[in-house]
Give the backbone structure.
Amino acid sequence: MTTTHYLDHAATSFPKPERVLAAVLHWFAAVGVSAGRGDGAGCRRAAIEVAAARAGIAALCNTSESSVAFVSGATEGLNLALRALLHHGDHVITTAFEHSSVVRPLRALQRERAISVEVIEPGPDGGLDAARLAPALAARPTRLVCATHASNVTGVCLDAAAMARAARQAGATFLLDASQTVGWLDVDVGADVVVASCHKALAAPPGLGFVAVRDGLRLAPQKQGGTGSSQALDEHPTDWPAAFEAGTPNTPALFGLAAALRALPPDTAGARLAAAVARCEQLEQLLADHTPIRLLRPPPGPRVPVTSFVHRDYDPAELGAMLDSAGFHVRSGHHCAPWLHRSLGTRAAGTVRVSPGADTPPASMQALADFLLAL
Ligand SMILES: Cc1ncc(COP(=O)(O)O)c(C=O)c1O
């Protein structure tokens, strides 16, 4: 059976908007080359689109264009930032909500550089009180605070602005993983470094992310190679953003991102996020009194459109497969967030996650609820 209800926008948004498809196709049909990799008009055209994409991300992060580097995704960006920021013996404070693209590099850096990692667990309501950061920072000199802006399992948003303030007061750097929020919410929260993928709420193709640093901060590049600039030198350039962009870029995805950003409403926290969150709330209301289902709802307050649940009688993977057969594309398992399941009580098998988009019709949620209630 083909999927009729796509409900996994937290993994990647689908379908991409027409304007994004048109921009990507235009690159394949009429451009085909990358900025700085040739002398022709196509390279100049590519440079214009890349500059537009860079300006758009710089505006979202309230930094200058030269402080935005494009990478292959949040995974590369987070690895890069963590490796650039953490040195031998450093202490880092992070949260139990983190994605594997933070958790696993930190684990590797514990072995390689003997860093120490303190993980703040969620409170009883499933949120994270940012006030808990100050005592942790006071207890020990801390190089870095690293937090996701929103959980990709429960949808709860963390108070990133308060965390950024606390980190700054303690002299620590604040790294924000905005993968689940950029395009939905304001990511200009005062972080020193913002990293995100562009293929979720921003609706660009996969294989593209960014590292945006506050003006004045410069990270050491973690890979060297061709940058299309300073080509006679055998040393890697130090100028940003070229220093961070070694290798032929993902220019078709950058064309898609530029097109997506041109159409992004100035009020990113507005109607589209509200529409998607309303779909989650609709589903949660429909399932709330159904005893076999335990909803892992976020506390009241800012959230992104993610609803996780477990079913008393079905393993999440089994239920995911059943839903797939019935035409619902959801995601089951741990959602690459290995730490959070300790507090959710879902370590063994994870959850079923439903993540609608702004254009998901209410009928999709009703059909999903009807299916689940009939089990
Ligand atoms: C919170 C969070 N961080 C990081 C990532 C990694 O993004 P990517 O796989 O595009 O590198 C994801 C992707 O699901 C995510 O949800």
